[in-house]
Specification:
InterPro entries: cNMP-bd_CS, cNMP-bd_dom, cNMP-bd_dom_sf, Env_Response_Regulators, HTH_CRP, RmlC-like_jellyroll, WH-like_DNA-bd_sf, WH_DNA-bd_sf. The chain is of the alpha+beta class and 219 residues long. The chain has 8 helices and 12 strands. β9 and β10 form a beta hairpin. The structure holds adenosine-3',5'-cyclic-monophosphate.
Length: 219
């Protein structure tokens, strides 16, 4: 817990108390942690693994709102506004979480204003990201959506090697498409056309962006 930015201001004693009120749980890959519309009584902090936050249509189409990584949290919205879960959360791989019950979470917020501020800051960043997603969905064509998604992933987690940027995709083509509302087939076709144009190269789940400027021009 010491390495979790959310709790970095907590003393050892406070962290001990936190451990007493929290529970640990491990979900296997593909487990649904909770579903949109459920009553929400718990706050979740990711210790290891990865989850996707999704919405689904009645026909089973999936849209991915976000992918969350270790030290990130989810489930705070229902605890703060008392509404049902706003989205479904699914483990993308085996995922270990720490769970805090609603009342304990609210007491923590009252006792630790710095924790409340950190959560507010994260909510603000998530709203920014969501606005950017709205912008992408509203204004860009399919190649533009793929180009912008790659650039966003590169900025968040890319490794710069000389003039190239290497990104580990960590998702299937389907999930990549689900992040931008583009079908798997179209996403694959666009990636291939970018490859043919010399903008990037793809090896299994690694994408090497060779010409960032040209990729940006496609937006
Ligand atoms: P809650 O509504 O309780 O349950 C679903 C959770 O998914 C929500 O709380 C947030 O923690 C998380 N969530 C919902 N929308 C987004 C988003 N756009 N980006 C990141 N996380 C989100």
């Amino acid at each position: 817990l010491k390495n979790v930015p959310l709790f970095e201001d907590f003393s050892d004693e406070e962290l001990e108390k936190l451990l007493v009120i929290s529970k640990e749980k491990t979900y296997p890959k593909d487990a649904v942690i909770f579903q949109k519309g459920d009553l929400g009584n718990f706050f979740f902090l990711i210790c290891s693994g990865r989850v996707k936050v999704i919405i689904e249509t009645e026909e089973g189409k999936e849209g991915i709102l976000s992918i969350l990584y270790p030290t990130e949290f989810f489930g705070e919205m229902s605890l703060l506004d008392g509404e049902p879960r706003s989205a479904t959360v699914v483990a993308l791989e085996e995922t270990r979480v720490i769970i805090i019950e609603r009342n304990d979470f609210l007491i923590l917020l009252y006792k630790h204003p710095e924790l409340a501020l950190k959560i507010l800051k994260t909510l603000s960043l998530r709203l920014r990201k969501a606005n950017r997603q709205i912008e992408t969905l509203m204004f860009l064509d399919a190649p533009g959506k793929v180009a912008r998604l790659l650039i966003d992933i590169a900025q968040e987690r890319g490794k710069k090697i000389n003039n190239e940027i290497l990104i580990d995709l960590e998702f299937t083509r389907q999930e990549l498409g689900n992040l931008i509302g583009v079908s798997r087939e179209t996403t694959t076709r666009i990636l291939k056309s970018f490859e043919e144009d010399g903008i990037l190269s793809i090896e299994r789940n690694q994408v090497i962006i060779k010409d960032v400027w040209e990729l940006k021009r496609r937006i």
